[in-house]
């Protein structure tokens, strides 16, 4: 149900506490006392047949006795009673419910399943079960058994764990950090992470969203919501369970390396979230994001009264990828005029241990005047010469007098070593992020930098695929069909070679031989050119050939090849008598003495679906453990980012007499692998190891591919459902002919359409812009246009009409669905000089076909009532026109038939 009724959950007018009691150790009793102590101003009704009053309030026997429907019911009763109470809440018109009770079970037929079915039928939203509750400080609501209500503020917390949520509430009280809302999801049978991300992303009172997660159930729903939220505001995630045992007996190197937590890390990075590793880091991020928004740049000026402290701060800054600001000549001269001659005359600006409050204020004013400083960290070591508290006051006052000649105020952060509570309160009341150590302070600043960098990365206009990638999908599909028909799951080396060749991935030629004589004969074609050969065991039952010494290299004669093949086959039969031995493969030795051994592969994670791995390859790949992962699909920019996250990337850049490897060819190979897995959904595991890379390009020396033939029988939408980030939907591409005979190409909008979309908007009149966006816009900035092109192809879909002769975009239709996949809002815009040609009809028709295929029930849109042209168009497409609650706006609505099957 998405964000439906979440506004009521966080701002209810009336609350019923079912299971309320005067017992001090009763959960229901704690909840009602906390609601009263917190100062909730709405109606509070205790429900318990055992009492006539609870906490001085009239207590009712059941919800049916109430004369009004409650916005929220908090249920704290034994597990067996909960389904009946939820049914009662639904019957009496309750809008939301929090189930604190644990022990309702999981899965079909459980108590939890029973109450979810009842709630959904009535539109009742559920939090829990087995949760702490919900806190909404802005309305003084503590509908939980947390000990206190934190102050109102700009942070939202969504926690899977009630204990973590309760701990953060205690910490927030001590640090005076405020929250816009706190929700403990518990088992999250209804309201989940994605719903809360959607809600808080649009909540104007929320500056940043904190998540504590132990697991994600619906990966695509989560990724869609996280990706959308992270483009609007910071999303900071603490994911627990980083060292869970996994991948102990994976069949491929990729499967062994792609541990569960590494995949979560890749998913959070793809979504644009900031990951923290423990509560200390979460608290640090909470404090800094509560006080300061992200800022442009990463050039940091450091002002300190201790040289050693400044050096430590610089070390931490460089470790985390920041940069020291280079002070301008004017700034150095200004500092010379106000500081003693012994000051450092460099950044960090060391104003000496006897620095007075006045010296702090004057030095800070000089730095705030320097437009080459993106942020300033002011640090203080307590001494007996000068008052740290008075220095804090001076810094705060100086910030209030920040020079107005700057283009934008510079953010200032404080680090007061051993900071007493009174000094922390001074900075907190002034809205300045403060820390008690240099490491914490710098890490907090870099959290803000990471957030800004993430959002810049997410808005890049990157081609989905290089123009050079034109795969032979037909040839690849034929191989897969043949393997599936034979009941096999592993492709032979020859079939792997065919598949890779079809997708333009360079691979070593391979020939199969069933016996030693055949191997010697096959080797002749490679030996005649003066090269050498490799002979490898061929067995569908032996995954890693090196486990049975099944590889021989640098064989320079037919006789050596024959002997090696005989030894390999004989040894395999002795060591693995149960295994099927199909013979050997013969390949030419690839002589690239300065090539780097890489690994590239694909595995399927049970939560997030297909992931791609890249790193240092070779037989010791697990021991070296130099790898990075990304979700699929992958574009060129993401491929380069993946490479950059590994240590082998530094070796690829070249050193001494070793030329740099062709990084562009490596990145393109990764994108080709991505396209292969997108096009051939039967692939469940893939290894290229080693993948050799040097200045001449890349070459896969050894490769393995595993398939699941059962996936072939599924439709396109079902097969793509395994991707947590939906691949570009090529199946929606279509050529249409307008009534006048004009041919156009309709396809989904892509990130690399940014320039074409900007050009289209240049051909839309200001009045048409006003009618579409409900506001007068003379220009559309690049950031907004980039945002419009960044789609997840799941909830967000946009179709464009392309004129083939110049690739101009003539029109766009857009669909924005809710997280539950039931309702979607449409929008449409046609170039002003292309209207009345039937283009809008085609774009809307294709959009509605997509909506029906996705299973949406209701399509709606808001149209200015003065826009009679659009309203008549909507009527012609079957939409019903309704009066909107917003003056001057008409609601258009179309109910789609239920999807069959």
Brief write-up:
With 901 residues, the protein is an alpha/beta fold. It is built from 30 helices and 38 strands.
What does this molecule look like?
The structure is a single chain. This protein is of the alpha/beta class. The chain contains 30 helices and 38 strands. The strands form seven sheets. The protein has an eight-stranded mixed β-sheet, sandwiched between helices. A seven-stranded mixed β-sheet has the order 9-8-11-10-12-13-14, with helices on both faces. Helix 3 runs parallel beside helix 4, helix 7 crosses helix 9 and helix 13 packs parallel to helix 14. The longest helix is centred in the middle third of the chain and has 21 residues. The protein is globular and about 95 Å long. About 2% of the residues have low confidence.
The tally of beta strands, per DSSP, is 38
Helix- and strand-based class? Answer: alpha/beta
Radius of gyration: 32 Å
- Could you tell me how far the N terminus lies from the C terminus, measured between alpha carbons in angstroms? 21 Å
Rounded mean pLDDT score: 91
Low-confidence stretches: 245-258
Which percent range fits the helix content? 25-40%
């Amino acid at each position: 149900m998405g964000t439906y009724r979440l506004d009521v959950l966080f701002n209810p007018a009336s609350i019923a506490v079912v299971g309320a009691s005067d017992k001090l150790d009763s959960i229901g009793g704690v909840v009602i006392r906390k609601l009263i102590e917190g100062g909730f101003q709405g109606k509070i009704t205790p429900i318990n047949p055992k009492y006539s009053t609870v906490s001085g309030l009239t207590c009712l026997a059941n919800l049916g006795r109430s004369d009004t429907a409650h916005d929220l019911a908090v249920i704290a009763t034994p597990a067996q009673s909960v389904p009946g109470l939820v049914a009662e809440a639904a019957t009496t018109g309750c809008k939301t419910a929090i189930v604190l009770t644990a022990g309702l079970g999981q899965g079909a037929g459980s108590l939890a399943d029973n109450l979810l079915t009842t709630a959904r039928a009535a539109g009742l939203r559920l939090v829990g079960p087995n949760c702490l509750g919900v806190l909404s400080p802005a309305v003084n609501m503590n509908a939980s058994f947390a000990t206190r209500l934190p102050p109102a503020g700009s942070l939202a917390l969504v926690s899977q764990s009630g204990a973590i949520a309760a701990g953060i509430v205690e910490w927030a009280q001590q640090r005076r950090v405020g929250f816009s809302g706190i929700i403990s999801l518990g088992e999250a049978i209804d309201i989940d992470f994605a719903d809360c991300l959607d809600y808080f992303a649009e909540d104007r009172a929320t500056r940043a969203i904190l998540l504590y997660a132990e697991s994600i159930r619906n990966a695509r729903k989560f990724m869609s919501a996280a990706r959308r939220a992270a483009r609007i505001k910071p999303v900071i995630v603490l994911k627990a369970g980083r060292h869970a045992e996994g991948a102990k007996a994976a069949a491929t190197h990729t499967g062994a390396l792609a541990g569960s937590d590494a995949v979560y890390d890749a998913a959070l990075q793809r979504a644009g979230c900031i990951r923290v590793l423990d509560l200390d880091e979460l608290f640090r991020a909470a404090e800094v994001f509560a006080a300061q928004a992200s800022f442009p740049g990463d050039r940091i000026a450091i002002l300190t009264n201790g040289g050693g402290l400044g050096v430590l701060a610089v070390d931490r800054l460089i470790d985390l990828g920041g940069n020291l600001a280079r002070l301008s000549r004017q700034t150095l001269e200004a500092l010379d005029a106000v500081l003693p001659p012994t000051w450092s005359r460099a950044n960090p600006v060391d104003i000496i241990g006897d620095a007075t409050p006045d010296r702090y204020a004057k030095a800070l004013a000089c730095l705030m005047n320097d437009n080459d400083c993106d942020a300033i960290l002011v640090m203080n070591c307590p001494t007996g010469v000068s008052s740290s508290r008075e220095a804090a006051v001076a810094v705060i006052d100086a910030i209030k007098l920040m020079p107005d000649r700057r283009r934008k105020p510079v953010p200032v952060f404080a680090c007061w070593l051993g900071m007493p509570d009174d000094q922390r309160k001074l900075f907190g009341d002034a809205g300045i992020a403060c820390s008690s150590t240099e490491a914490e302070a710098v890490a907090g600043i870099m959290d803000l930098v990471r957030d800004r960098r993430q959002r810049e990365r997410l808005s890049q206009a990157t081609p989905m695929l290089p123009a050079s990638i034109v795969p032979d999908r037909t040839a690849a599909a034929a191989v897969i069909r043949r393997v599936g028909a034979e009941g096999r799951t592993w492709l032979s080396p020859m079939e792997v070679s065919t598949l890779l060749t079809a997708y333009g991935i360079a691979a070593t030629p391979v020939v199969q031989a069933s016996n030693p004589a055949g191997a010697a004969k096959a080797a002749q074609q490679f030996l005649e050119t003066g090269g050498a050969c490799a002979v490898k065991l061929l067995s569908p039952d032996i995954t890693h050939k090196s486990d049975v010494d099944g590889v021989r290299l640098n064989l320079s004669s037919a006789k050596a090849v024959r002997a090696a093949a005989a030894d390999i086959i004989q040894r395999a039969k002795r060591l693995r008598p149960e295994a099927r031995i199909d013979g050997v493969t013969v390949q030419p030795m690839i002589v690239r003495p300065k090539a780097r051994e890489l690994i590239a592969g694909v595995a399927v994670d049970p939560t997030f679906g297909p992931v791609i791995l890249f790193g240092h390859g070779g037989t010791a790949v697990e021991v070296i453990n130099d790898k990075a992962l990304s979700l699929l699909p992958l574009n060129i920019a993401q491929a380069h980012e993946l490479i950059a996250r590994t240590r082998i990337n530094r070796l690829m850049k070249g050193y001494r007499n070793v030329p740099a490897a062709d990084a562009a060819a490596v990145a393109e190979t990764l994108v080709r692998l991505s396209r292969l897995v997108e096009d051939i959904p039967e692939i469940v595991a893939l290894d290229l190891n080693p993948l050799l890379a040097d200045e001449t390009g890349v070459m896969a020396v050894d490769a393995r591919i595993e398939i699941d033939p059962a996936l072939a029988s599924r439709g396109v939408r079902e097969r793509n459902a395994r991707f947590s980030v939906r691949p570009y939907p090529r199946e929606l591409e279509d050529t249409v002919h307008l009534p006048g005979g004009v041919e156009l190409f309709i396809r989904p909008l892509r990130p690399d359409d940014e320039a074409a979309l900007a050009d289209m908007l240049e051909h839309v009149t200001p009045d048409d812009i006003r009618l579409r966006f409900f506001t007068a816009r003379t220009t559309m900035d690049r950031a907004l246009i980039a945002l419009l092109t960044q789609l997840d192809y799941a909830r967000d879909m946009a179709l464009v009409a392309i004129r083939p002769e110049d690739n101009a975009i003539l029109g766009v239709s857009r669909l924005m669905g809710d997280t539950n996949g039931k309702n979607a809002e449409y929008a449409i815009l046609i170039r002003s000089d292309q209207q009345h040609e039937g283009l809008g009809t085609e774009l809307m028709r294709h959009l509605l076909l997509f909506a029906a295929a996705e299973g949406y029930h209701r399509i709606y849109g808001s149209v200015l009532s003065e826009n009679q042209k659009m309203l008549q168009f909507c009527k012609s497409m079957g939409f019903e026109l309704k009066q909107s609650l917003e003056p001057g706006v008409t609601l258009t609505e179309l109910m789609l038939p239920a999807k069959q099957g």
